[in-house]
Amino acid sequence: MHRFASESMQNIKPSELDIIWAKAAELTAQGKDIVNFGIGRPDFDTPAPIKEKAVQAMNKGEVHYTLPRGMEELRQAISDELKQRHDVSYDPASEIMVTVGCVEGITCLLMTVLDPGDEVLVPSPMYPFYWGWAEFLGGRTVEAPLSRENGYQITEKALEKAITPKTKVMIINTPCNPTGVCQEMGGLKAAAKVAQRHDLLVISDEIYGRLTYDGVEHISLTSLPGMKERTVLTTSFSKAFAMDGWRVGYLAGPAELVKDMDNAHLRASTCASVISQYGAIEALRLGEELVAPMRERLEKRRDLIFDMVDQAPGLSAVKPRGAFYLWLEYGDVGMSDMDLSLYLLEKAQVAGISGSAFGASVKRGMRLSYATDRKTIEKGMKRLIAAFQNL
Ligand SMILES: Cc1ncc(COP(=O)(O)O)c(C=O)c1O
């Protein structure tokens, strides 16, 4: 670390995710045929109409700052989308902010609400970058481990155990990265009850909300009674529209809080890229027409990877019903899950992310991203299963 690096920055250690990614890249650069199940982004190209709209905008000279909260046309489209998908009304002028992906939205929100010492409660296994935000701001991330026995559904008991007088915010992510689990109504109600009982602000990260399988309908936490006023819904175009490099997303929440966030958002980004905002307008206009074909392909890949795991001796998984991750479970292999990931990378040339990247309390498990083609999934899983058998 540079001598000028702040103390809070020095306390943020690199995630195990970064270590596996770097190692996989190094081996690939050496010419090794690595099957990479580590990457958390779609392998699809951004749909052509989205790209065309962005190019047209650029060619028309739409190259300047937009309003900090985002283009009015986009905010209106977001408001319509939320009403139509979740039957929740958001005022585009005061309750919606276009952000530079989900990440910038969550960063600005936490900058706005956290004081030193405050705690952020997150059910785990959890998206690795939830850890570090609070710490950077002088707060603390506290995990509420969920159990395999009830399919990683949220329970009041699991959340209550992790609540302290300092808990101020709770982050709920469904469909979940890394487990692919969609919270059912019971899990959502449990989260809502605990949030209301302890007067918590809820960040509902619904970035995979459009990617659900087996006919599962994504339920937004904001649609539960009494939750809209204490919830900020965050999402982006990164996953369902294969626009992760465009860096555009949005959040919707109470008007006063969105107003309070203006300060942080202005300093962090001024506004999201105008070109990406044009693309996002087109993404919302065509919606399902663009998402459905990608979702169908992902669902078939989910079937393939899940069936291979299901039939493999010693391996198991809760069937993922959303996102594009499978949470691989295995018995005692005589080494830590990080060592196991590195071992599989060297021996089987397969990159999967070790469970402990998804929470300090997670001791065993591996996230496999199936956002890759079927042939690669088959090849990688055959290697992985053989390597587990030889352990
Ligand atoms: C649960 C979750 N939230 C947020 C993000 C960040 O997404 P964005 O590209 O919108 O910043 C990711 C990306 O992997 C994610 O999995």
UniProtKB/TrEMBL annotation:
Q: Does the keyword Nucleus apply?
A: no
Record-annotated Aminotransferase class I/classII large domain positions: 32-384
Q: Name one GO biological process term.
A: amino acid metabolic process
| Cofactor field | pyridoxal 5'-phosphate
Q: Which GO terms describe its molecular function?
A: pyridoxal phosphate binding; transaminase activity
Q: What is its EC number?
A: 2.6.1.-
> Which UniProt key words apply to this protein?
Aminotransferase, Pyridoxal phosphate, Transferase
**Family membership noted in the UniProt record:** Belongs to the class-I pyridoxal-phosphate-dependent aminotransferase family.
Matches recorded under PANTHER family: ASPARTATE AMINOTRANSFERASE (PTHR46383)
Q: What is this protein called?
A: Aminotransferase
Q: Which organism is it from?
A: Dethiosulfatarculus sandiegensis
